[in-house]
Every structure is written in structure tokens, then in C-alpha cells.
Design goal:
This protein is an alpha/beta fold. It has one domain: 3-Layer(aba) Sandwich (Rossmann fold). 34% of the residues lie in helices and 27% in strands. The protein has a six-stranded mixed sheet with strand order 6-7-8-3-9-10, sandwiched between helices. A four-stranded antiparallel sheet has the order 2-1-4-5, covered by helices on one side. A hairpin with a 2-residue loop joins β4 and β5. α4 packs antiparallel against α5 and α5 runs parallel beside α6. It is globular. It starts with a strand and ends with a strand.
């Protein structure tokens, strides 16, 4: 399954009433890799979390395919994320006491029994492709690059149509970061998924189909590769 994105009159406000993000219009065709750049505090993470239905005080329209996120209840948004969205966080958010496969297969804990086996097999397949073994070693002893690869495998394990990545190369050395971007983009392209990656890393932008720059909560530039 592939999903396109359509945003209309999106506005996110702080509790004080200050506008954190304003996107009058934005569309993405299914299967696009979108990079999001901009200075710290400009609204990049707010934009990403809005796409996942995780932002409060948002108005307007965020439509993935036929699903408009904003009118949905919090429970319905969570269900949409479980079925449709894979997220890669800069802090990994792994369980230190679990091995790579157990971490990568975690989406199966929230899926129906009929899907759990397929999710575990897909997690193992992605780990194999990323060069991570299925051994009993816990991720507590993993390097930053290994941890981020496990996080990517977890994001892809449930075969989501959408991948949202927040600073996927943060805190990685240059060689490891470059390899990780190559792996992530190749996996996404091979499976026809839509990727939105927020990053300060120019190496991420060069691999995207399109790059937008957010400054002061607004899209200041929009360039296609």
C-alpha cells in the first residue's frame, strides 16, 4: 500500500496562542522521499509529529490517502499509526534489555495474532539486510549505528506505508551516518513507501526527491531534486 499526503490550512498553536507551524498547502505523491530542513526551533519536529497525528492544538487538514487525521479521536489516530506509520526517533527508544529481533518486532505486540508472525519475519529480514544479527546479545552493548539500524527495522517491521524519521543520523559519525542514510532510503524506495525525514544533515537532503525548508514555522523553500 502506498499513500499520498495532502495538507490544507494546517496551523499548530502553543497553549499561549502563538503559532508554531503554518502550512497553507502541501502535497506529496505516494512513494516520495521528502527531506525537511531548517534551524533548531523552526517547527520541523512539530511538522513531523503533526503528520503522525501527535500534535495538539492543530487545525486544518492532514490527509493521508482517504484518511483525514485531525477530526479523528486520539484512539483512532493511534490505530492509524499502528497500521500505517513507522517512526524512527533520534533517541532510538529501544528496550536495553532486549535483543535486536525482540526490539525490531515490537510492533507485533500491538497487532492481531494473525499478523504477529509476519511482523517478526519482516523484522528479521530487515535486520539481515542492515547487517544486524539475530543473536541473544542485548542492544545495551550496541553502537549508535547498530541501535539506529534496529530502530529502522522496527519502523519497517509492520510494513507501514509511511516512514517518519526525526534526525535519523544524529550523533553518528560521518561514515556510519552515510551508510545508514543509504540503507534507509534504499529500503523505502524498494518497497514504495513515503518517507519524511527531518534532519540537519546535508547527506540526508541529497538523497531525497524533494526538500522543504521550515523557518519560523513556515515553509520558506520547496525544491525538487
Amino acid at each position: 500500500m502506498t499513500l499520498g499526503l495532502s495538507i490544507t490550512d494546517l496551523a499548530v498553536k502553543a497553549s499561549s496562542g502563538r503559532t508554531l507551524l503554518s502550512v497553507p498547502a502541501l502535497t506529496l505523491t505516494p512513494g516520495t522521499c521528502l527531506g525537511v530542513r531548517g534551524p533548531s526551533g523552526a517547527g520541523k519536529s512539530t511538522f513531523l509529529f503533526s503528520l503522525a497525528g501527535l500534535t495538539e492544538n492543530a487545525t486544518g487538514t492532514i490527509r493521508w490517502g482517504d484518511t483525514d487525521l485531525l477530526p479523528l479521536s486520539s484512539e483512532a489516530r493511534a490505530k492509524f499509526r499502528r497500521r500505517t506509520v513507522g517512526m524512527v526517533f533520534q533517541d532510538f527508544l529501544l528496550f536495553e534489555e532486549l535483543a535486536a529481533t525482540a526490539n525490531a518486532a515490537l510492533p507485533g505486540a500491538y497487532a492481531s495474532r494473525s499478523r504477529q508472525s509476519a511482523i517478526t519475519e519482516r523484522a528479521r529480514s530487515v535486520l539481515d539486510r542492515l547487517g544486524i544479527s539475530h543473536g541473544a546479545r542485548t542492544v545495551e552493548s550496541f553502537s549508535g549505528g547498530e541501535r539506529q539500524r534496529v530502530a529502522i527495522a522496527r519502523a519497517l517491521a509492520a510494513d507501514p506505508a509511511i516512514i517518519l524519521a526525526d534526525e535519523p543520523t544524529a550523533s553518528l559519525d560521518r561514515k556510519t551516518a552515510d551508510a545508514l542514510v543509504d540503507d534507509l532510503v534504499s529500503l523505502v524506495r524498494d518497497t514504495g513507501k513515503t518517507l519524511v525525514a527531518v534532519s540537519h544533515d546535508p547527506a540526508v537532503y541529497t538523497r531525497m526527491d524533494r526538500v522543504i525548508e521550515i523557518i519560523d514555522g513556515r515553509i520558506a523553500s520547496d525544491k525538487t531534486a
